[in-house]
Amino acid sequence: MGADELTPIGRFYAYTYYTDVWGYAAPDGTELALLGTAQGLSIVDVTDPGSPAEVAFIPGAATIASDIKTYGDHAFLVSNNPRVLQIVSLADPHHPVEIGGPRFVPASHNMFIDEYGMLYAVRPSQPLQVFDVSDPENPVEVGSYPFFYHDLYVRNGRAYGLDPTAQRLEILDVSLLPEITLEQSLPYRVSYAHGGWLTGDGRYFIATDESDAGHLHVFDLTDPAGPRAIAQWENPFDPEASVHNVLIEGDVAYVSWYTSGIFALDVRDPARPQLLAHYDTYPGRGFAFDGVFGIYPYLPSGNILASDMSTGLWIFRHRAADAQLTLTVTDRESGLPLRDAIVRNLAGEAGTTDADGRVTIELAEGSHMLEVEHPGHLARTLDLTVTWRQIVTRRLALPPLPSHLVAQPSVTDGPTTIRFAPSATVESDLRIHDIGGRTLRTLRVSPGAGAVDWDGRDREGRRVPAGMYWIESSAPDLAPGRVQVVR
């Protein structure tokens, strides 16, 4: 099966230093990249990824804009120094505006906004702070709590926090705010517990280790006794590079890996992540806080946003690998494999079977009708629907040609193929008769041929009228056949 591809389709570079990136899709179809810079928030229209254009710049109240999220049609920006929260209205995606001024938030390094409009602000040296931003222009502080995280993820009343000091994953019950309780805590071997994301089914949590040679950690959350560390995934291209953020869309984990670029991993089996695609935006290698900082894979267009700290905004298209079909073709009566069977799809010939009767072809996601032919056998079709990256195996048995002539299709508006058991040595004729016995067309059959096409026309090139037509062969031992023409 071929590999996935991450292809850059757009770039935006207007500043000297970049941080995180998030995305926003407006009701009118406009897609925006919310790009953190050392000077503030750059809002870039990426609807046409080949021509990204900045529509607004919101000056930052800090030296570094460290995290960006959205809720409804508002963007939220937290900064490191000073520690503030800024809110931007995206109601008019072509003219975004800041709402109010910066608000002091001590725990302002990273944040997460859940489905209920609760904003969780974290900083390893500060207690967790929670704000109600369901009315985005009038945030209300819910409370401050003695949990110290670098980043966290929240869904369905559960918060998953990464504590870099104690090196552990903690799960909080946040379903009854303002009350928060610690449910479970799991220490694990990690240099610097950074952040993570929950799989779609909520059964696994994938975390990042932001350190020299840091990598991914996978936790199984299905055991009532508590989470279990079940797997790690290391960078195969540059083991010394540090990983930063991971976000999961469907069965794919998208990872920003600083100096090693961006990765797309197949996490259908989270215990065994598999590399799908990789693209490196940064020219260097090794451990450094440079290269890809943030990534965002949730735009309706399917385009992927990535922020490189040195080279700015990158826009990617992720093309998933085609499905792979392995088809084995056999003789229906003997069960033996058929060599040189031809498999065709709507685009033309797709492949020919080998000595074991097998052929492997790639198919795009969707429904397909394949036609399989072999000399001396009736053709058959195979209908199947595949998804990206799917591995499919099928067997198809072809019946031997009978001792009479067979038209496929037997009912046609014109063209048809007449099939029969081939003779290796005898040249013969096929004659097309109408019901009155008149010969309308004679078709020459070469020795060894097992099929001949008839275009539904007589010897003068005229289309024959609708009706039943008889097919007769001059070769011995071949009984007549028939075809019905409809107009």
Automatic annotation (TrEMBL):
Q: Which InterPro entries does UniProt cross-reference here?
A: Carb-bd-like_fold, Choice_anch_B, FlgD/Vpr_Ig-like, Haem_d1_sf, LVIVD
Gene Ontology CC: one annotated term = extracellular region
UniProt GO MF annotations: carbohydrate binding
Residues forming the FlgD/Vpr Ig-like domain are: 414-472
Pfam families to which the protein is assigned, alphabetical = FlgD_ig (PF13860), LVIVD (PF08309)
The record's annotation in NCBIfam families points to: choice_anch_B
Report the protein name in the record: Choice-of-anchor B family protein
Organism the protein comes from: Eiseniibacteriota bacterium
The uppermost taxa in this organism's lineage are: Bacteria, Candidatus Eiseniibacteriota
